[in-house]
Every structure is written in C-alpha cells, then in structure tokens.
TrEMBL record:
Keywords (A to Z) from UniProt: Glycosyltransferase, Membrane, Transferase, Transmembrane, Transmembrane helix
CC per GO annotation: Golgi membrane
Gene Ontology biological-process annotations: protein N-linked glycosylation
A Pfam family it matches: Glyco_transf_34
Similarity section: Belongs to the glycosyltransferase 34 family.
TM spans (from-to): 38-57
A molecular function GO annotation: glycosyltransferase activity
Protein name: Alpha-1,6-mannosyltransferase
Amino acid sequence: MTTSYSLPYDQEDYTKTFKPKSSLSNQLNKFILQNKKIILFIITFIILSLFTNVPYIPHLKFNTSPKIVIILAANEGGGVLKWKSPQEWSVERSSIANKKHYAKLHGYGLTIKDMTIKKRYSHEWRESWEKVDILKQTMRQFPNTEWFWWLDLHTYIMEPQISLEQHFLENLNNQTYRTLENFNPLNLRKDIPYVDYTQPIDMIITQDCGGFNLGSFLLRRSQWSEMLLDIWWDPAMYEQMHMQWEHKEQDALETLYSTQPWIRERIGFLPLRKINAFPPGACSDKADDPQYFFKNNDFVVNMAGCEWGRDCWGEMEHYKALSKKLHKRWWKFWS
C-alpha cells in the first residue's frame, strides 16, 4: 500500500512553477536598453547646452544672481598700502560680519571691494570717485541683479531681521519723495523744466545736513543707471572740477541733479533715518534736529565722519552691543 502525504504549505508552493514579477529596476533597465540611443542623445544635448558654447544649440541658462547685491567698501585683509591699528581691524571685522549675516539671512549677494586700490585714482584727480567705477564693475560682475546697495565701512545694520523689500522696496513710491519742496538742505533749485516725476525710481538716496549722502544708497540696473554712471565718471567732471568740489562725487551728483531733467526724474529720496541714521557728533550743527539722529529700531546707523575727530571703534562697539541688546531673545533674560 502506497502511503500518501502532503508537503507543508511553503514547500508545496515552492514546487509550483511561477513567473517572477518584474521589478521597477528591471523595467527601467529594459527601457534604457531599448532606448539607449535616444537617452544618449538627450544627455549629450544637455551637456552641450549647459557647459559649452557650441553654435546652433539652444543653451540653458539658470538665473542664479540674487535680486539685491550689497557692495561694502572695505580693506579686507589689510594689504601693504596702509597699516591698520587693532581698532581699525576690529571695526572692519564687525562691519563685514554684520553685512555677511544680513546678506545670508535674506538671500542677498555681497561683494567686498578692497579700498586699498583707491590710491590708483588719485593721480588722475579721480580720488573719491571710486564708488562710480566700483558700481560699474559690480554691475558687470552680477549681470542679472536688479538692485545694488552701496554701504560704507562705517555703517551697521541694526535691524537685520527686516529685508529691504519689507522696509521700503515693495512700497517705493509711498516711502520716497521726489521733489525738494519740504527738505532741501543745500537750497538746490526746487524744480527745473521737463522733469517727468512719473518715471520709475532707479536711484534711492538720502539727504543730510551736508547734502546728498552716499554712505548708503541704492541703484537699480537700467539703461538710465548705465548712462548716469557714464556721465558721472566723465573726465570733464573729475579733471576740471576736482579742485572746486570738496565732496567730489557727491558734488558731481548734486550738480547733475540740479541741471539735468533726465537725471532728476529717476531719483527718489528716503528720509535719512530710513537707511542712514547718524550717531551724535555727526551733523553737530543740527544736534537739536531729530530727523538726523539714530533712535532705537532705526534700520541702519552710519557713523559718517567718525575718522575725523571721533572714535570709530567706540561707536561701532556701542551700536553692535545695542543691536544685540535690542534683539535679545526673551528666554535669555537672565544672562
């Protein structure tokens, strides 16, 4: 008599014939093998588009330039043209760290321009006109950036959590004034013919007790700004007027604003404390006028002229400590 028995369930299944299910990787491999010529062509096309200048091939370009670039005038690293004291090193480090933190926080670009090269301008009477040349260079360096914000070394961003868009750029027409009716410290001509104030604003500056302040200002990329920089950098300006104009490029811009309608119509003014608040000691003859001087929660402090008889290091340390205090986290109240 033959004894019959049954295999365990798992062994019984094992003896059955079956066709394994094709995995995703198997399907992908099969697709690649079937279409390898097409895939090779696509990869070659992408490489040629991104990394070469082969003619007749459309080239893919990715806009990696930031919308805003901060230009900081500094002498990073010292160099051989000027010996710096420990206080000057400290001021420079603090200012650079402040701008780097702000740019990183908001996704802005930052370029630090070595001001030791400014000596190369002096033999052609262009000393103090270097801002114009550096702006032209930076625009070439960042061809897709819209706004360029110039900051002198002796400035400190006191409210780093506020973006420029939030502070005034998104509401530019309401934040700026276009004429000199209400504030005109130099008594420039209040109006000239053929000015169209409906034109967009391409340059944002402030006025202080000495006129236009170029320690902190913004320039938008446009055909207008390119023409402005060209005429601002014209040899007729610095060769013929360098002895008459005490403030060099500032006086040049004020003259252009006073006489050229096409320049006047694209300049917008911010109140000084919006991007250029002064510490006590600057504009000392206006010590009783609050529109000039820093108050808590002002955006930027500009220690203008501190190298002429004031303590740049002391002022920088004061405002650095004040900014830290104003933004101290509530849970650190005991420290």
